[in-house]
Amino acid sequence: MPYPNSLRSRFIITLSIMLVLVMGILVFILHQLMIPNLISEERQSAHVYANALQKGIDQNARALGDMAYQWASWISTREFMEGRLPDFPQTHITPAVFSDHDADMMVITNINDGVVWVAGRNPSNGRFTSCATPEGPCQWTIEQVRQIQRQLPMADTIPRIGITPGFALLSTWPIARQDTPVQSGKLTLVRFLPGQWQLDAENSASTLTLSATRQSTDIVNGETRVDIDSTSDDSLRLTLARDSATPGYQVLMTTRLDRQGLRNGIERFNLTMLGAMGLLLGLMMLMLWIFRAIVLRPIAELSRYAVALRQSPGEHLESPPPWLQARGDELGIMAREFQTLIRELNDRNAHLKALTNRDALTGLGNRRLLDRQLPRILSLTHRLDRPVALIMIDVDHFKLYNDFYGHPEGDQCLKTIAETLSDIFQRESDLVARIGGEEFVIVLPDFDLDRAMDIARGVCTAMEAQCLPHEPSPTHKYVTISAGVAISSPEHPLAGEALIKRADEALYQVKKSSRNAVGCASPG
């Protein structure tokens, strides 16, 4: 039913106006102006950087291509291919040549693409070898030579990156006189590239991660495709794709760019928003003043009351302020109902807590209480250098009793046993619990084995003295019990579960050999 002085409409109208104003300004500035411009600038910078990387790659390729062209154009190289300078490899193909020109391998082939000479630095050990065939000391070149031979018929003079057996920059030039198109062979220079290629771009070192994929149809021969992906808020993935010397494949060169520009732009945006928030502060203060009079003050009083109630759940607390309970709107009703609800919940929680720790039939502690209290009793008693005794009791032939007299009489029998145990064990430190159908446990701090055995025998005698008829029992005409005793001493302390298990084993031995008796577990 609507209240005569409802706060709902006033609160919703005021909050809606504030949210519309704030969210409208923020959404417009952020999504329509700032972020798109920042992303556009970031991608333009990434393309500029990609162009710088391409220039660096092209410079490396041109340097290798120029070196290959010079070697292929030498008269000495042509004379070697014509058989007129047989000592050419020994005099010209030396380790110093490879070191000076940053090349790793040279392959010279004839017009039939047969290998005439191969030389280079073994990437596995760095040694220089020079051979007429890729055998013996030059065995390490055989895979590279095979790939070069596959690529020679389709190769042009544009340096390219091969992908097998490893990444390498290749440049091939025909060996021929400048005044005639007749070739006597081809010369190929190879520079091995690591999977992580350090390349200088824009006066800074960049790491390109090399990978290979099948040839894409959108890459024109000799061109480079640039892909820019936003992998996270911190970096962009820049990928350069270009055709390789290996037919059917393209090389992907990937690096990551820090998005510092975007972060700086967002920081500038945040500073701008601080100014905008200053403009909104006046409006917020006016609205908060209205809220304080209508909503915030009563809510704050209820909040303080709830916090005090949580921090001191067991202590008596004053009711919410009278002026708040006297209000005729929703908050006044809330304050009155809040007080009633807390009182009812406390009563129910206290009742539930008692039920969770007590056996519903006998009123004794249950297994939950035993599991929680036994470790604490053991710890505290052993700290005082005293033992703890545990007696486990089982009603003899209780199933026969239930079958003969019926379950109501069986329940009454258990209640009588519980009353007897409660009369005997009245120390505050003693713990009596029912842990099963007809099983009971008694925990006795500061009891040694002899005293525990005596008290257990006394319990058996006291139970027999109740003279509860047990006609079907093969042991006695009255209801009797059997007991197992176990001790946890400071010298040989036991955990709670282990102590219960010891007493259960002692009880089992008693029931196995006789009934209406007491047995004990061996100490230690």
TrEMBL record:
Gene Ontology molecular function: diguanylate cyclase activity
TM annotation in the entry: 12-35, 269-291
Catalytic reaction list: 2 GTP = 3',3'-c-di-GMP + 2 diphosphate
Cofactor(s) of this protein: Mg(2+)
Keywords per UniProt: Membrane, Transmembrane, Transmembrane helix
Domain of life, source organism: Bacteria
One GO BP annotation of this record: negative regulation of bacterial-type flagellum-dependent cell motility
Keyword Transmembrane: yes
E.C. number(s) listed in UniProt: 2.7.7.65
Domain GGDEF: 386-523
SMART domains membership: GGDEF (SM00267)
InterPro entries linked to this entry: CHASE4 (IPR007892), Diguanylate_Cyclase (IPR050469), GGDEF_dom (IPR000160), HAMP_dom (IPR003660), Nucleotide_cyclase (IPR029787), Rev_trsase/Diguanyl_cyclase (IPR043128)
UniProt GO cellular component terms: plasma membrane
Span of domain HAMP: 293-350
Keyword Ribosomal protein: no
Protein's UniProt name: diguanylate cyclase
Taxonomic lineage: Bacteria, Pseudomonadati, Pseudomonadota, Gammaproteobacteria, Oceanospirillales
